[in-house]
Amino acid sequence: MISRVSSFFNNSYSLYDFTVEDCYGNIFDFSKLEDKVILIVNITIIDAFLEKIFELQTLYDKYNKDGLEIIAFPTDQFLSPSLTNPQTLPSNSVSNFCQKYNITFPVMEKCKVNGKNQVGVYRYLKAQKKGPLGLKLIKWNFEKFLIDKDGEVSGRFSSLYRLNKLEKNIKSLLFDKKKPRSVSSRTLNKYSNYYY
């Protein structure tokens, strides 16, 4: 996983400073996402979760022309070892999956979103918005970060938070003239800016 960011502890960098490799081996530069609303989500590419992938594709098709970008980071950190055997998921499995199911939003190469070898984008996002009780750990597949047009993390949403509920937040960031509040007291855990 490639990154221009030399230090994760330097406060001067932003999401737009990152470059990563996508599932086709091309460099994906986050600087091209300036002035966009961005939804970043960690996914898994097994058929049991196809419905969630298709929901992301539907959301992308609906709002991409208005400035929404969905960036997916495939990970196998939350699956059983039998499902993540290299013989089961070869290096080209992500790109093959995207082609097979006509996934058109950007999907990055397979990576880690937790731990010492986590991709830098996730280290950055988790530092911006912590999870329950101040924990940074990604708990499961399909946890989501919503980024506003200024590149700031507007909200962090659990795997259980449905996309049809999240759509309201996305529309607000895309279409509201004034900058919306990033925190909703009714839906947030009192310890963090984390949506359940």
UniProtKB/TrEMBL annotation:
Keywords: Oxidoreductase, Peroxidase. SUPFAM superfamilies: Thioredoxin-like. Pfam families: GSHPx. GO terms for cellular component: peroxisomal matrix. It comes from the Eukaryota. One of its GO terms (molecular function) is glutathione peroxidase activity. GO terms for biological process: cellular response to oxidative stress; peroxisome organization. The keyword Oxidoreductase applies. The keyword Oxidoreductase applies. InterPro entries: Glutathione_peroxidase, Thioredoxin-like_sf. Belongs to the glutathione peroxidase family. This is Glutathione peroxidase. It comes from Ascoidea rubescens DSM 1968.
